[in-house]
Predict the 3D structure of the following.
Amino acid sequence: MEIIFLGTSSAVHSKERNHPSIALKAFGDVMLFDCGEGTQRQMLHTKVSPMKISRIFISHLHGDHILGLPGLLQSLGLQDREEKLTIYGPRGLSKVKDAIYNFGYCKFDFPIDFIEIGTEIIEETDEYIIRSQSVRHNVPSLAYSIEEKKKPRFLREKAIELGIPVGPAFGRLHNGEEVEVNGKIIKPEQVLGEPRKGIKITYSGDTRPCEEMIELAAQRGIADKFHFPGFMKGKQVYETFRDSDVYVMPSVSEPFGISPLEAMQCGVPSIISKQSGCAEILDKCIKTDYWDIHAMADAMYSICTNEGLYEYLKVEGIKEVDEITWEKVGLRIRKCYDETIERFNKH
């Protein structure tokens, strides 16, 4: 499996991050999850061929997740695509279809299926299973899960001990078929190891904290990697901070953001975006551009592995936040006001 991030931004894109879209190359197929504006252009910078996309999974119908569809479909038509394309999405997808077919005098000479779905198994083969799950948003929204069905390991030595000749019989047994050797029936379970878990990928799209996503994570066996606290207040907030190693606020345009100060007050090293309001007053933290996911990942790794950096940000962060008081802020505002009046009077 190979995951290609074509867009990781939200409603507001940047020079470095496109609107949401992720391609998955697996099982001899290319699947696309969401198709934000500019998705097909992003593919030019990768080894993803739009012509090889077999299915598109739309999480919800907000513009930043679907506005790349009309252009992509028209480009596929211009490239003389013949293979069927299947597009899955939540309730309302049929209206998107109508809009696309009536937009820009477009005509498609290849079959396109638009299928509205809810919580269900979308497709199951011997190799994988694809599920959808309704989640909470202010419009109908879906999460998707792709799970590999991994075959048990073939026990070659055990097969040879049973007198099975090396050759096609090995493959048949590994595929679950019985074989006959010297008049004796050999069953697959005699030469196969324990069941193996395959790779599991879950794409959530946009969702509020909800039980459905918790259950989906649990079903996929990844619940221990996530914590879904929901809304917290008072003591709960500080207990959560004290259980954390790093606080990250990758805000696009947060006017201020009080939570980094709360985290630093609890001794939690913090990473914030340069674009957030609190970046103007905080120095004892790490600041990155909100779109620079690599810098953010490097910062998280450094804090978790560099004990000196961790201790410095922890201790100095507490000192810095303790120095921020309403009285000092008021004096700074008063000073700014006085200087402005003084300059005005001079003119």
The first strand starts at residue 2 and ends at 7. The mean pLDDT is 87.
